[in-house]
Amino acid sequence: MPNLRLLSVLSLLLFLRLAVQAGPGEDVPAFGQSARILVQGDSITDGNRGRSTDPNHILGHGYQFIIAARYGAELAERDLTFMNRGISGNTVLDLEKRWQKDTLDLKPDLLSILIGVNDDGRNVSFEQYEQVYDKLLTDSQAANPKMKLVLCEPFCLPKGKVPEHWEVPAGIKKRQEIVAKLAAQHGAALVHFQAIFTEACKRAPADHWIWDGVHPTYSGHQLMAEEWVRVVKAFWK
Q1: For residues 92 and 83, what is the distance between their CA atoms, to the nearest angstrom?
Q2: CA distance 235 to 2
Q3: Its pTM surpasses 0.85
Q4: Residue 152, exposed/middle/buried by CB under 10 A (0-12, 13-18, 19+)?
Q5: Residues in Cβ contact with 186 at an 8 Å cutoff, skipping those fewer than 6 apart
Q6: What is the pLDDT, as a whole number, of residue 164?
Q7: Which terminus of the chain has a smaller tally of CB atoms within 10 A, N or C?
Q8: What mean pLDDT is reported for the chain?
Q9: How far is the CA of 9 from the CAs of 1, 2, 3, 13, in angstroms?
């Protein structure tokens, strides 16, 4: 018979190891000492954020708040600064108009961008989308060659139940491909949000995750936060 005492000790060691791995203080190497983390984009990132210095509302609600709340607490000793400049309804053309003030002047050490759904809805051409996006990234890296970039692909889901053979609309899929191309060109981490939402629909209906086909629910934002952190941790080990 197996040594029950030995099994108990091994079980305890395994439990302690798992507890350490999942417990507080989990490291994210991309978040260096006194790092400034900026998220940019449209309404999904805006999250109805406040436009004042009130710290209770300045980040809005959504994936960006979940990330900031967790690591602002777990890595408190690093004095991290999380900033949100997403604006509802924006396209890359709108980002371009305010890039100096709302991005470069804030001097981020890590810049995360999620943009593209409105570009598709407003028929911004694929060529213009790519060219302007590329210029924003080039200007950012010129301002700070050490800046870490995180590019998030635009995404969507159908309303109601997801049909068995549903496919991502061609316009959104093309912009996802452009974002992936730009991420490779600029050495950025790439977050595939579409895949996690498509997979999540096997567990619950689409409107459990994205209530109107575009804007995530609180459950959807949690998925986004988890995937964003997973990708960033893996990219900067």
Answers
A1: 19
A2: 43
A3: yes
A4: buried
A5: 137, 138, 141, 149, 151
A6: 79
A7: N
A8: 91
A9: 16, 13, 10, 6
